[in-house]
Amino acid sequence: MKKLYLAALCVESITLAAVAHAESRQLPPIINNSTYADGASYSSQASSNQPMLEMLGRMDALQTEVQQLRGMLEQQGHEINNLQQRQKNIYSDINTRLQALETGAGIALSTSSSATSTMVTPVASKKTTEPVKTKQIQVKQSYVKPAQVKSSPVKVVKPASKADEKAAFDKAFMSVKNSHYQQAIKQLEQFLQDYPDGSYSDNAHFWLGSVYKVVNNIPAAKVNFQAVYTQFPKSEKAAMAMLKLADIYKEDNNTAKAQQLYTEITTQYADSTAADMAKKKLQNIGQ
User: In the CATH scheme, what is the code of domain 164-234?
Assistant: First the structure.
């Protein structure tokens, strides 16, 4: 019995000693990978990617700005197209009104100045049969001092700007629009004197020819219509000016000249509206 008790005590003491030894043993240290070579390379790689990330961010910002600018350009282009279409509609409306007047009897030019012209009769000189007595007169020669001419300062004329040219044309065109034809003629003639090779000279010749046609001044209308396509062959008014001149020749029963101009329109300005109209007029002449 005593042996069993002693054996139990021995087993218990051994167990307690093992537990005490296990508790007193230190745990292994925690490994920090950043202190090794692999960890160092990972941290250096992350720092090298930072400029790339910043560049990508800037590229995204630039793409956003480009999209915004593209949208603004599209909006402005749409507004410009609307303004151009509106201007074309105004020109088309005025052209239609002038054509309607051209096909009518026309407006007679003002002849108030010519109506008040007076006839001057020459006065016959009386012939004298009496002999003319002559007397010898001694003339003393005298020295005459030459007159001193004062030179006036020369005025330097500054070239007109594009804004002045546009303002002058708009003023004349407004007279055409308001059917003030005599005033429009004066303004357009003055405009062509001031700006013979200006940006609006082709339009000035075109509208001047149209107004002259309305007031039934056919020779002046012919000159201005011809000036459009001869002096400004690339003008957008060139084909229509040639068409109007051909119509004048047709009205004058000069069918050969009208047919020649209609044919030139279809070849030189094949893609224009005037070319389509010229083809129809040629068909009517052939019938």
Answer: 1.25.40.10
